[in-house]
Each structure stands twice: as C-alpha cells, then as structure tokens.
C-alpha cells in the first residue's frame, strides 16, 4: 500500500467530505436506470474517470470495474441485469494503456504483494493479461455471444490511453 497520502488510516477526512457533498446533494429521487443506456466495463485504475471520459453524469450509465477491466462471470451478470432491467443498450469494454495487470506476470505480482504484506502471497491468484488486444477481442466476443445479451445491444471494445484521455475503438 502507498503510505503518506493521508496521515491517518481512519475515515474522518472522507466522512467530512461526505457531509459537504450531502449538503449540496442533488442526485436524490433517481431510479436505477442507465438514462443514457450505457454500461462500461473498465479497470479499477485510479486514472480512469469512466463517466467524465464519455461526457456522462451520475444516472447515465452502469459502471463495472475490476483489475484489468475484464469481462468476468461477475461482469456478465451485471451486464445481463443492465440490459434487461436497467435500460442498457450500449456496452463499452474499456481496458487501458499502462495497466498493471498487463505489464506484470503473475509471479511478479505475487512477489510484490508478498513483499508489501510481509508474508507469502504465492497462493493468491491474479488474472494477469498476456495480450491486451486478444483479451479485449475475447471479452467482446464473450458479451456478444452471451445468450441473454447477444444482438440486443451494441457492444464495443476500446483502449483508453491514460496519457491522452483518448478512447480508441478496437472492435
Ligand atoms: Zn488497469
């Protein structure tokens, strides 16, 4: 973990910020529908702002994030719900440049986590990505071929450049 960004490990700073947020809260009374019909599967990377990079606002889209922005079983579960119950008509799969999941081997990640944890981490699995391009094609295929998603929605695969903010449609 990174040390030094915040002095305490408590949540006081965040709860204080939440008080200010709630004081000018305008998002009440929303339903859970994706009002722009968009779902995004992307990486947990802190450099990615999934709504703003697409010109969207809270309420517009369903966002599913995990390390690498992969279409996992959980992601498919979320997309099925999104398509059938929450107004999703367009699905964007968005991995990104300089992703740790694509630039480390599983052994390297285990070693780094083990060093941070001060204990053996060789039992912890990480779904590292050997080839981002091929993984993206496979992930888009997994969504398009899902029997409950299929042709009902538009599905696109995009690479997000964390240095320029640009999305490049790959498929
Ligand atoms: Zn990433």
From TrEMBL:
One of its GO terms (molecular function) is carbonate dehydratase activity. It holds the Pfam family Pro_CA. Binds 1 zinc ion per subunit. Its cofactor is Zn(2+). InterPro entries: Carbonic_anhydrase, Carbonic_anhydrase_sf. It catalyses: hydrogencarbonate + H(+) = CO2 + H2O. Zn(2+) binds at residues 43, 45, 96, 99. Belongs to the beta-class carbonic anhydrase family. Keywords: Metal-binding, Zinc. Its EC number is 4.2.1.1. CDD domains: beta_CA_cladeD (cd03379). Catalyzes the reversible hydration of carbon dioxide to form bicarbonate. SUPFAM superfamilies: beta-carbonic anhydrase, cab (SSF53056). This is carbonic anhydrase. It is an enzyme of class 4 (lyase). It comes from Pedococcus bigeumensis.
């Amino acid at each position: 973990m990174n040390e030094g960004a915040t002095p305490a490990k408590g949540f006081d700073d965040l709860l204080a910020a939440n008080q200010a947020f709630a004081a000018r809260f305008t998002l009440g009374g929303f339903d859970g529908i994706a009002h722009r019909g968009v779902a995004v599967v992307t990486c947990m990377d802190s450099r990615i702002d999934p709504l703003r990079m697409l010109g969207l606002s809270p309420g517009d889209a369903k966002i599913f994030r995990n390390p690498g922005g992969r279409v996992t079983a959980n992601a498919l579960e979320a997309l099925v719900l999104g398509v059938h119950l929450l107004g999703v008509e367009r699905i964007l799969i968005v991995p990104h440049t300089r992703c740790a999941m694509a630039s480390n081997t599983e052994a390297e990640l285990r070693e780094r986590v083990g060093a941070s944890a001060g204990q053996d981490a060789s039992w912890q699995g990480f779904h590292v990505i050997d080839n981002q391009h091929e993984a993206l094609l496979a992930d888009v295929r997994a969504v398009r071929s899902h029997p409950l998603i299929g042709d009902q929605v538009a599905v696109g695969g995009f690479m997000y450049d964390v240095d320029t903010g640009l999305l490049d449609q790959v498929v």
